[in-house]
Amino acid sequence: MELLLIQSQEHNKLPLAELNAVLETEEMDVEIEKVHPGIVLLKNIAENVFDDYYRILVRRLAYTHEVHHLISKISYGDMEEGVESINWSSFIDDNFAVRVKRIDSDIDTVATERKIGSIILSNTDGISVNLSNPKSFIRVIANENDLYLCYGKYQLNKKYFEEMKPHKRPFFHPGCMSPKLARCMVNLSRIREGDLVLDPFCGTGGILMEAGIIGARLVGCDIDWRMKKGTATNLDYIGITDYKTHVVDIRELEMYELADAVVTDPPYGISTTTSGEGTSGIFKSFLISIKHNMKDDALLVMASPDSIDIDSILDEVGFVLHERYAIRMHRSLTRIISVIAKKE
To answer: CB under 8 Å, gap of 24 or more: what pairs does 103-108 form?
Structure first.
């Protein structure tokens, strides 16, 4: 069995990196095929785990727009015969809608939707078309001369990332990370449900919110008591209860339980917080402290501006770079996402 994913094109590497991290974390036995930029197939999925895989991907992924059960791949010229050959009654309950998405294709989407819908109606008893609120959703991807016929059983909550933008939360502070990037960073940390996630610069709690939604236990720290309180307010707002927040300087942090992952976005003005120490010294102190508060197999996923060079101190402190991604935010800022592991 196969799943087809329509991924975001906001970044050329992060969507696939996030997907690979989730597949690794959840130990999903699949074969990945990149059909086209933004279109990925997960192939050879065993039937007994197919539904579980489907649910997990829909629940976790941020840089993926849609996940669908791939029913069949046909050529555009063989559309009528290919659509007729499918037992649609096993996918459609009561009513349905067909929606076509073009990728490097010049087909008429409306005409193709009507044609496929008509064929399905003619070959399936007891169903009707409902374009406004269908019980069953048929997604067709038109890529060059191929049509990928898909069934959308589970839907990603696309509205969530819009509704949870920082300025829409009860507690807001300028400079907050978007929930989509925060969720991606959490996924890159390879956490599982029940793992302990630490954000030592929790700010308004955006990263912890995303880790909590996945099912992690949370610890948030900040040197500013207003941020500590604001994080708690935002976590309460979305119904997350398994968390602790503390006012503490990261260099003085001593965790009673070591973290399964550290995901954080340090304040970019951190070099000014300690007189005379400078950027390298501050980050070195931060990395030393974090290392002693992480399990040996834990990952540190950290955002930083491209103006700060952390590579020169990773080896000295005892870390190794696992992955790295650059995100251009605007002309004066490129945000670097680094996935860092302890040296073995």
So the answer is: 103/36, 103/38, 103/39, 103/141, 103/142, 103/143, 104/36, 104/143, 104/144, 105/142, 105/143, 105/144, 105/145, 107/76, 107/142
Task: Say how far apart CA 280 and CA 284 lie, in whole Å.
Answer: 6
Look at residues 268, 5, 303 and name the one whose alpha carbon lies nearest to residue 181.
303
**From the CB of residue 262, how many other CB atoms can be counted at a distance below 10 Å?**
25
pLDDT digits (tens, 9 = 90+) for 309-344: 888 889 999 999 999 999 988 777 889 999 999 998
pLDDT digits (tens, 9 = 90+) for 168-225: 999 999 888 999 999 999 999 999 999 999 999 999 999 999 999 999 999 999 999 9
Q: How many domains does the chain have?
A: 2
Residue 230, domain extent: 163-342
Residue 53 maps to a domain: yes
pLDDT > 70? residue 30 = yes
The verdict on 145 and 197 lying in the same domain is no
Cα(220)–Cα(248) distance, integer angstroms: 10
Dihedral sign of CA atoms 198, 204, 208, 212 in order = positive
